[in-house]
Design brief:
The complex is a heterodimer.
Chain A lengths: L2 E3 L18 E3 L3 H10 L3 E3 L5 E3 L12 E4 L15 E3 L1 H15 L4 E8 L7 E7 L2 H10 L5 H4 L6 E6 L6 H4 L6 E5 L4 E5 L5 H18 L3 E9 L5 E6 L5 H5 L5 E4 L2 E4 L4 E3 L15 H8 L6 E3 L1
Parallel strand pairs in A: 1-2, 2-7, 4-17, 5-6, 5-10, 8-9, 9-11
Antiparallel strand pairs in A: 3-4, 7-8, 10-11, 12-13, 12-14, 12-15, 15-16
Helix pairs in contact in A: 1-3
Chain B lengths: L4 E2 L2 E8 L9 E4 L1 H10 L1 E4 L11 E4 L12 H15 L2 E6 L2 E2 L7 E2 L2 H12 L8 E3 L6 E3 L12 H4 L3 H19 L8 H4 L10
Parallel strand pairs in B: 2-6
Antiparallel strand pairs in B: 3-6, 4-5, 7-8, 9-10
Helix pairs in contact in B: 1-2
The chains are: A alpha/beta, B alpha+beta.
């Protein structure tokens, strides 16, 4: 196993039990990742410089395959039911053992990032992915530490994402081959069997929806937000397709973020550093061209 | 680079793409109504291409993001309610969906009008106008708004068939009430009293 890229001296995937993987590429730049993606034939560069990926079977999240480990920490705090489906701690360990076995001798991409723009509530996350493109997603989606910060980065949460690992429901206790399992005690999210990177995004949102209200008295919100010239903040709640992104982009107001925010006693802060927009059925009309032209090198277009 | 942060909110907008064409394009909510609509998290999907589906489908997702909530929705609602009171924030319900009839009959509300309504709210221009309460949902509809035709502010005006509007409004109200049953035990009287009330016809 060789390490490449920028990382803290003591940073190692062995801390999460990944001992026999191939090369580990740490915090690669977008151009390095694009090169990897294209060389490996996993995606193509578009004429705007964005990279286009076929994510395969899944082009959306799979809510019925999202689980949460039920243990001492979560049993009496989590809202159990169809939104938060129980998963046994021992099953989590066994599933992760099988993922580790799958990742043996494979090259791995590690990405250190922050969630929460307010330093007071900042969450250090390490996203460990099987593919270069899921890693690039994490680069685009979350807040980026500086090179200097990367050299002393200490992760609190780990997200391990292996789209090529297929669970076996009879062994793993999942519903089918794809899954996202959150473990609040071990501070880990395991994602497998799906290449849809929204599982990473909304996995992190789910952990913030627990930590912030439950432990830090901060309201977490599924909303966009912007600020006027006089410093007045507005937030826009709404389900998918109701206009959060459209209505928060206003030339007269500064955008804070388009999807996930926290509201503390001091104000509102974005959880993310990027934007994730659906381009389904977008065609090259004049209006859409403006949007498509914004997709440049290092950005990510999913088809 | 400016960090992605801002002060405490002065205005909150709940966006709903109401394909039934019932909810007003903009309305102002009381604290109780704000909590009720936050917990409900309503939007409607258009009938789309599925065979046999002719009516818009109501969707309720608590806190406008139920799929991502590890805690009970009442926890988030309680925190929002507390913050709304502390910060004296205005809460608006915006229908970015249909007007003049349900999907198939009416039309999608034009983005330029929705933007004009939001701008008026943000600039405090709706603080100075008179309001009319919606007969079923009880929410306050401004009687006028800069750069928006006044007749569209009350959705009932935009329907050719007023009886059809009233019937559909009652039906939507019943859907809200039914969905809310699961949260009723955790809700305060203030929130419960903000539920829509079906209009009885003579």
């Amino acid at each position: 196993m060789n390490d490449y890229g920028i990382k803290a001296d003591n940073a190692s995937l062995e801390s999460i039990g990944l001992k026999h993987v191939g090369n580990v590429f740490w915090n690669m730049s977008p151009s390095e990742l694009v090169e990897e993606i294209v060389i490996q034939g996993q995606g193509v560069l578009t004429d705007t410089g964005a990279i286009a990926i076929e994510t395969g079977e899944f082009t959306g999240r799979s809510p019925q395959d999202k689980f949460c480990v039920c243990d001492e920490k979560t049993e009496n705090s989590v809202w159990w039911g169809k939104v938060n489906i129980k998963f046994e701690p021992s099953k989590f360990d066994a599933l992760y053992d099988r993922m580790k076995a799958y990742l043996t001798n494979r090259d791995i991409y590690a990405r250190d990032a922050y969630a929460c723009a307010d330093p007071k509530y900042r969450l250090n996350i390490r996203v460990v992915t099987e593919t270069a493109w899921s890693n690039m997603f994490a680069y685009n989606m979350f807040l980026r530490p500086t090179d200097q910060e990367l050299q002393s980065f200490n992760p609190e949460w780990h997200i391990v994402c292996a789209p090529g690992f297929m669970a076996d429901p009879s062994i793993d206790g999942t519903r089918q081959h794809n899954f996202a399992v959150i473990n609040f005690t071990k501070k880990m999210i395991l994602i497998g069997g799906t290449g849809y990177t929204g599982e990473i995004k909304k996995g992190v949102f789910t952990i913030l929806n627990y930590i912030l209200p439950h432990e830090k008295n901060v309201l977490s919100m599924h909303c966009s937000a912007n600020v006027g010239k006089d410093g007045d903040t507005a937030v826009f709640f709404g389900l998918s397709g109701t206009g959060k992104t459209t209505l928060s982009s206003d030339p007269n107001r500064r955008l804070i973020g388009d999807d996930e925010h926290g509201w503390s006693s001091e104000g509102v802060f974005n959880f993310e550093g990027g934007c994730y927009a659906k381009t389904i059925d977008l065609t090259r009309t004049k209006k859409n061209l403006r949007f498509l032209k914004q997709l440049n090198l290092g950005q990510f277009l999913k088809t | 680079m400016v960090p992605s942060v801002g002060g405490v909110p002065k205005n909150i907008f709940f966006l709903t793409a109401d394909a039934t064409g019932i909810l007003p394009p903009i309305s102002k909510l009381t604290a109780g109504q704000a909590m009720y609509h936050f917990i409900s998290g309503y939007t409607a999907k258009v009938a789309g291409t599925e065979m046999g589906v002719k009516e818009p489908q109501s969707t309720f997702s608590a806190c406008f993001g139920q799929a991502f909530l590890p805690l009970h929705p009442a926890k988030y609602a309680e925190m929002l309610g507390q913050k709304m009171k502390e910060c004296n924030v205005n809460v608006w319900l915006i229908n970015t969906g249909w007007s003049g009839g349900s999907y198939g009959v009416g039309e999608r509300i034009k983005l330029k009008f929705t933007r004009a309504m939001i701008t008026a709210a943000l600039e405090g221009k709706l603080d100075k106008v008179a309001y009319t309460n919606h007969e079923v949902f009880g929410v306050a509809m401004p009687n006028e708004c800069e750069n928006v035709p006044a007749e569209m502010l009350n959705p009932r005006n935009t329907w050719a068939d007023k009886n059809a509007y009233d019937d559909r409004a009652n039906k939507l109200a019943a859907e809200f009430v039914k969905n809310f049953e699961q949260f009723a035990s955790a809700a305060s009287p203030e929130i419960l009293s903000a539920a829509p009330k079906a209009k009885t016809t003579a």
